[in-house]
Write a structure and sequence with these properties.
Layout (H helix, E strand, L loop, with lengths): L18 H6 L5 H17 L3 H21 L7 H18 L5 H23 L4 H26 L7 H21 L3
């Protein structure tokens, strides 16, 4: 009597492997948006080469995690680690934790692998390469937004007020991450 269509949380499965689907996918996940912006914020607060190397390490390692997922690799706890990444990356920005660039790259790379794996696992049988390209572009743009916010807010000011504002943005991200981890 009624023609019932299934509900989908993302785009139509036949289109799920498209460049547009890959581009839009990270823009509709609060965990991904917050984690990517936090990476950019922290990288900007570290300054120097970290400003571009840390986000680049995230994107590169995310691609590796995506490919491992598409090849059928098994990675336990992917979703909890993705959720925790928002909290931890937000805390890194909040604390403006000063570490060598290589250490920062390893830290974000750990979380990036899980992000890539989780999103590759959601793809299913659809066209992986166009989806991955769109996913990488959107992730890079979110990192750039975080870097831009971090650079704009962390410029030296009287009493370091602007840097404090950038760190507070990281703190708000960490609070959102805590909410996500708690199942919010």
């Amino acid at each position: 009597m009624f023609n019932v269509m299934p509900a989908f949380a993302h785009l139509n499965p036949e289109e799920h492997g498209s460049l547009l689907a890959g581009f839009s996918h990270p823009l509709f996940g609060l965990d991904h948006i917050l984690a990517m912006i936090a990476v950019g914020l922290w990288a900007a607060l570290l300054g120097g080469r970290s400003t571009w190397l840390i986000p680049s390490a995230f994107v590169g390692t995310m691609v590796v995690g995506f490919v491992v997922s598409m090849l059928g690799g098994d990675l336990p706890f992917a979703e909890p680690v993705v959720a925790a990444s928002v909290l931890i990356l937000g805390l890194l920005a909040f604390a403006a934790l000063q570490v060598p660039t290589s250490v920062g790259m390893v830290l974000v790379g750990f979380f990036a692998f899980f992000h890539g794996y989780a999103h590759g696992g959601e793809l299913g049988e659809a066209g992986a390469f166009p989806f991955l390209v769109g996913f990488v572009i959107a992730t890079t743009l979110l990192h750039a937004l975080g870097v831009r916010i971090g650079l704009g807010l962390s410029r030296p000011a009287i009493g370091g007020v602007q840097r404090w504002v950038a760190q507070m943005a990281g703190g708000l991200t960490a609070l959102a991450g805590l909410w996500i981890v708690a199942g919010g």
